[in-house]
Specification:
The complex is a heterodimer of chains A (329) and B (311). Chain A is α/β, with parallel strands linked by helices. Chain A contains 11 helices and 12 strands. Chain A starts with 8 loop residues before the first strand and ends in a 9-residue tail after the last strand. Chain B is α/β, with parallel strands linked by helices. Helices cover 35% and strands 24% of the residues of chain B. Chain B contains 11 helices and 12 strands. Chain B has an 8-stranded mixed β-sheet, with helices on both faces. Chain B starts with a strand and ends in a 13-residue tail after the last strand. The chains are: A alpha/beta (329), B alpha/beta (311). Chains A and B meet through α7 and α8 of A and α7, α8, α10 and α11 of B.
């Protein structure tokens, strides 16, 4: 197995299926997602709110709990299927081998402890350092690595005493402390000002290279994905609709949804924006066939919108669309 | 001051008491801001969070009172106007907010929300109903939306109701405060297209506040960049994006994701550090000078430069 960029896969997701179940009905929020994250690769998972991006990430880490559950599929990492791994093994893997950072770091830090104490706790918990003294030294090194150069001072500050950008850097330091293979970053820059956003994006790219780390980067912002991604996966209504090398997908989007999404975003060179008509379907009651069909300009062209479209691979890009069906249209 | 100005502000200052500071300490949110909106134009106001953008918007509408400076709306000096006279002007100046769900009363239907802004006019029931329906139609919704509550609307529909509420009283001047920032990208485009269509049809004068440079570039005739409470540069939008002068403007444009796709990470980091250093050394309180037609930038020579009144 390999990523669309040709590299070996670090993590392989196969047919991942996540549901929300209540008394009345079962809603599929991640519908048989299949993709790989290559080594030293940034995979951007793009989609609008409610498309299933975060649910995919939480399912990989098995951080879902009732009424949400993983109903099927496999997540392969180092020869183990994480979906079936015993909970204690999973617990020691979370944070240590697969770490996660979030949109708002202020919600993730304990406001009553200094940033230093929280870093030290993580380093001791993951046994990256022996003893408080060594942990403090390592913490200052980590802060320097995320370009908080006066780490000695930052160590003694409380989360409310630093800016959002500094706190996001501190959260990244916390996440990379145990040297994970994979960092899941869920909208890590969406709450930040553009100048800080650009710094954090480049920091993540630096860390990817310096630490040979892979990153699953979740974002609704295509311009952000364009800046960081090696590979992209586009989600729509719980399904992956397009998946391939970033350069290829951005230069030559194949799925009508990807095309529409790119045309709807103001970019430095966009003259006219084209809104996508309509709204995403309710996941509790998706259209029977192609989920994008009600909004798709090409649905009439192939006339098979009521049947679930096949996933077709064209030039190493997978597309879930009838337009590319070799047997039809 | 241009004869055609609908709104103009001169040397606006607004201070807020510092949170957690000793009493008497103040944060200067807006420092000596001068700006002017010509009838029918859209002025984009960009800057980072905390730069004072929203405060300027609220000052222009007299939702906040300035500590110093003057604001003129269609010949009226807002700071001197009594409450009653101000109330008479309110229908002509309206605001649209960032998050439609928090800006719309969850216990009111769309009809009540939009109609609320008409109540001061004391219209007859029938005319009131007709104008609400006309406003709902204006934003591309139909009669069937009148009875819906905000939670029954999608983000885009809710923002349309917010726009209908602002437009129902036939205003001349609209402050659009981050109106697409809480929306998904595909919905953003739809709301931006609607705003641009409406302002052309209704000849609206718009202050478009946003942290998103690409969005501002897309909708604005002119743009003004705020940094730490001051306008540091203003120019016709195309000119500002083509030849930004102030280091903060250049840093902002440099930071637009994807804008530096041809430069590698190391190059981008080096450029950014260089701009940050320039910004640090740039005089923070120097006056704006006009360097080419309509393009004003804070003077790099400090406050002893020839003071000129900005547009």
């Amino acid at each position: 197995m390999s990523s669309p960029n040709g590299g070996a896969a670090l993590l392989s997701v196969r047919g991942l299926h996540t549901q929300v179940r209540n008394q009345r009905r079962t809603t599929t929020v991640v519908d048989r997602a299949t993709f790989d994250i290559g080594r030293r690769e940034v995979l951007a998972l793009i989609g609008e709110s409610g498309s299933g991006k975060t649910m995919t990430a939480l399912s990989i880490l098995r951080l879902v709990s009732p009424p949400i559950s993983i109903a099927g599929g496999e997540v392969w990492y180092q020869g183990q299927n994480l979906v079936r791994l015993p909970e204690d093994a999973m617990r020691s893997l979370r944070g240590r081998q697969i770490a996660m950072i979030f949109q708002n770091p202020r919600d993730r830090f304990d406001p009553l402890q200094t940033i230093g104490d929280q870093l030290v706790e993580v380093l001791l918990h993951h046994r990256v350092a022996r003893g408080r003294r060594e942990a403090e030294d390592r913490a200052v090194d980590l802060l320097a690595e995320v370009q908080l150069l006066d780490g000695g001072r930052v160590m003694h500050l409380y989360p409310n005493e630093v800016s959002g950008g500094m706190l996001q850097r501190a959260m990244i330091a916390l996440a990379i402390a145990p040297a994970p293979d994979l960092l899941i970053a869920d909208e890590p820059t969406s709450a930040l000002d553009v100048t800080i956003q650009s710094e954090i994006l480049d920091l993540l790219k630096d860390l990817e290279a310096a630490r040979s780390m892979s990153i699953l980067f979740i974002t609704h912002d295509i311009s952000v994905a364009r800046q960081v991604a090696d590979t992209v996966a586009v989600m729509y209504a719980g399904q992956l609709v397009e998946y391939g090398a970033a350069a290829e997908v951005f230069a030559n989007p194949r799925h009508p949804y990807t095309q529409a999404l790119l045309a709807s975003v103001p970019s430095p060179d966009a003259e006219i924006l084209h809104p996508i008509p309509g709204q995403p379907p309710a996941l509790s009651n998706p259209p029977p066939g192609c989920r994008f069909a009600p909004r798709c300009p090409s649905a009439a062209q192939h006339g098979r919108a009521l049947e679930p479209p096949p996933v077709v691979t064209v030039d190493r890009v997978s597309v879930r669309c009838w337009l590319y069906d070799p047997g039809g249209a | 001051m241009s004869a055609d100005a609908l709104v103009s502000a001169h040397d606006l200052v607004k201070k807020f008491p510092a949170r957690g500071g000793r009493s008497g300490e103040a944060v200067v949110a807006v420092a000596n801001v001068n700006l002017e909106l010509v009838r029918g134009e859209t002025l984009g106001l960009v800057g980072e969070s905390g730069s004072g953008k929203s405060t300027v918007g609220r000052l222009l509408l007299r939702l906040l009172r300035p500590d110093a400076g003057t604001i003129t709306f269609d010949g009226h000096s807002l700071e001197r106007l009594g409450t009653r006279a101000m109330r008479g002007l309110r229908p002509r100046m309206q605001i649209i907010f960032q998050n439609p769900y928090s800006a719309l009363n969850p216990r009111m239907t769309a009809e009540e929300i939009v109609g609320f802004n008409l109540r001061p006019l004391g219209l007859a029931a029938r005319e009131h109903r007709e104008r609400v329906l006309a406003a709902i139609r204006l934003v591309g919704l139909g009669r069937d939306f009148l009875g819906r509550y905000p939670h029954q609307l999608s983000g885009g529909q809710a923002q349309r109701v917010g726009i209908a509420r602002a437009l129902v009283s036939s205003p001349d001047f609209i402050v659009a405060d981050e109106i697409v920032s809480a929306l998904d990208v595909s919905v953003q485009a739809e709301i931006l297209a609607l705003l641009m269509d409406l302002r052309a049809r209704l000849r609206l004068t718009t202050l478009f506040i946003s942290h998103n440079l690409s969005v501002v570039r897309y909708v604005s005739d002119r743009a003004a960049v705020m940094y730490k409470g001051r306008i540091v540069e203003t120019a016709p939008t195309r000119l500002l994006y083509r030849s930004p002068k102030h280091p903060y403007t250049r840093l902002l444009i440099h930071s637009v994701p994807g804008a530096q796709a041809d430069t590698d990470v190391v190059g981008r980091e080096r450029d950014r550090e260089e701009l940050a250093r320039e910004l640090k050394e740039y005089p923070a309180d120097s006056p704006l000078v006009e360097i080419e037609a309509g393009h004003w930038v804070q003077s790099p020579n400090g406050s002893h430069a020839n003071p000129q009144v900005s547009p």
